[in-house]
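Could you help me review a protein record that somebody else here produced? This is what I was given.
***
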Amino acid sequence: MNNIININELANPYGEAGFECTVQEAGYLNNFGAWVKCEDSKFIVRDDNGHPFKAVGNDYQLVNHTQAFQTAERIIEQSNIDTTDMIKEFKTSHDGARAFGFYRFPQHREEVALNDTIELQLLVRNSIDGSMRFAIEYGALRLACLNGMTALGSIGKFKRKHTKYLNIHDAVEPLTNVIELYENSIETWKKFTTTKVTDTEAILAIADAVGTREINKFIKDNISNKFNDDVEYLLWDKQLSRAYQVKDVWTEYKKYRTDLGSTLWAVYNAMTHWGTHTGAYKESSQKNIASIQNDRRTAIAKTTDNLLLSMVA
């Protein structure tokens, strides 16, 4: 088994996220042309092109993307993860302000059902400008469709704001038992494959994950009372004319239901398919799709923890 990571394989092993930033003083030119320093603020500036990110307060703790990924690699090295044939991918959004790292481990593949295999993944995210927390968590990929799946429950996740109290090395010890956490989740995902759901249960879960608060409430209040548990009838209602996300995930669910049956696994995969593969709903937002996908993963994880897990308890 190999769990050694050579981060010096390339001059820049982190691709578009492999730049460094430094902290610079903030200020402005007043009406008389004099430079006035802002004592309570500072700028984070890219060293390679001089691009400044938004001003932050003095308590802000800068974590470069490279530092975030190197911390994840320390976790991997101190765990019992087999890194043979490991796959790494790095993405950015918001002009580099946010970065996402994905580490896949082909030696850790498990079947959750016949011919339905998942693969261990470690996810890392970081922001330069404080717009997103530093976080590391384990997850998985369903190989049949490359849907990304996040950790179940609160364990296996480390998240911290970029305050002066942030120490990213605190993430190392709690996450070195990744394999144990992954194996526990596999048993839960197996239960998903055999747990039957009604159409009403499916649409309620989908709305909880991807709908707005108003859309979710409308569906919850009316699916049984007004629409007699007929989801197709429900989705034609004018109140849901702009519920594009809910309708898209329901369409995916019907496809997955054909192969996986009316199961919680089909619902979960419909949501993770949308989270992983569906583009931005505004063309202008597509350049930040990596961040949008992260927000979707977070929403799906919340619904999974708060709703889906209770269905297999």
